[in-house]
Structures are given as C-alpha cells and as structure tokens.
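To assess whether ligand presence alters the predicted conformation, the chain was also submitted together with adenosine-5'-diphosphate. Input:
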Amino acid sequence: ILPQKSIEEVSADVQQWAKQKRDEVESLQMNEEFRKEFLMNLSHELRTPIFTIQGYVETLLNGAIDDAAVSKKFLSNAAKSIDRLVRLVDDVDEISKLESGRMPLTPEAFVIQDLAKDIFEEFSLKTQSRHMKLEFKKGTEGALKVFADKGKIRQALVNLIENAIKYGNEGGTVSVGFYQLDDNRVYVEVSDDGPGIAEEHLPRIFERFYRADRSRNSAIGGTGLGLAIVKHIIDAHGQTINVRSKLGVGSSFGFTLERRG
Ligand code: ADP
C-alpha cells in the first residue's frame, strides 16, 4: 500500500508539473521563433545572388549577348553568384543536419597536429594568393592525441582557418596552436593578425547569419553560417569555444577537445 500524500506534497507535485509544461511550451515557442527567423534570414541571403543572376540573364537576352566580351563578363559574374548559392545550400544543409541531430558523432582517437598538417596543405594555394603565412604556433611539445569525430573537427578547423585567411590582411599571418590544458583537455587556437572584430559584435558572432560588418563582408561573400557550424560541432562534443578579438590587432578562436592518452 502506497503511503498517502499530504495536500502540500500533492500541491508541490502539481506546481512542479505546471512548471515543466510551461518550460516545454516556452521551448517550443523559442524553436518556432528560431525557425521563423532562420527562414527570414535564409530568404534574405538567397535574394541577392538570385536577383544578380536574373539581372545578368535578362540583360543578355535583351541584346547584350551579341557582344562576346560583354557576354563573357556577365556569364562569369553570374557563375560567381551561382557559386555563392551552392555554398549557401551546402551550409544550410550542414547546419540543419547538425541541429536535427541526424548527424551522430563517430569519435575516434587521433593526433590533432597531424590533422592540422593535412589541412595546411589544402590551404597552400589560398594563402599564397593572399601572400599570407599559415603556421604552427609554439604550443605544447609533442603529439597531442584527442578523442573526437575527426571529420567534424576537420570541418571546424577548416572554417576557422578559412575565416582567418578570408578576413585577414594581405601579407598577414594565420597561426594555429595546440596546448594541453589539463589531464583531460586539449586547447586548439586559430589566430590571425587581421582587422579584428568590434567588441559589440563578439557576443553574437556564433549566431546563424550574423556578420560583424555587412558592407565589408558582402564583398568577401560568406554565408554567415561558418561560425554557427563550428559552434554546433564543438557543442555536440560537449566542449567549449571562445573568441578573443581586438580591432586593428587580430582575432583568436579557441576550442577545447577531449584528450586521449
Ligand atoms: P561568413 O560566412 O560571413 O564568414 P561566419 O559565421 O564564418 O560567416 O563569420 C561570421 C562573421 O564573423 C563574419 O561575417 C565576420 O564579420 C566575422 N569574422 C569571423 N571570423 C573573423 C576573423 N578571423 N576576423 C575578422 N572577422 C571575422
């Protein structure tokens, strides 16, 4: 026989249940807000490249096609906008998979510096074209083994290095450092000596579609999703990410990883 609950206990249960329901509803409403905002941002981001392509195609059809040089220029500009659309669709695909939890992590043990060496090679053309240096920072001596989803950490590092090169100054340096933080964690840091990010933007920099300086960045042509993807990946690993930046000095993005052996 179950002991009878007192009126106070029943009332506490009811209050607890009501609070739980209220939290559930609030979280659903939040999701709904996020969804609306995401769609609004997305249609805004799609508009520019689509209108650009439309403009070039219509001008070509209206006669510009008869001039070979003009046609070539217009088509090459339209192709750039198509590239932008493809990148946007890829990033949206990635972020929706991460958010819906349809991409479970498959962690393994690997040496983080080896992964970075691989990535550095991939970037050699991009750094050369901007006369930039991509180098290792003096961190903890010796190989650091981590336990994480290698493919996803590769993507996180690629996004951070890509930004550092993209926003960094021509002729500047991007450095990547690896440190043993404590017995259980490794710290990875990607730094540049570029223009930096104003303090007021830092708290929102990891939000989807957030950009620090719209006019400057529209020329660079990102999707505004790169850092949101990085944060998702690091969050999914139960680790933390941070940013430090100073205008005119540079930026540093750092995240932790689980250390293994
Ligand atoms: P984007 O596709 O615009 O690069 P991200 O999510 O990768 O989107 O970055 C968000 C914004 O953060 C960028 O638009 C830029 O304003 C700023 N940012 C990111 N990395 C750097 C960096 N290394 N230096 C300066 N600004 C940066």
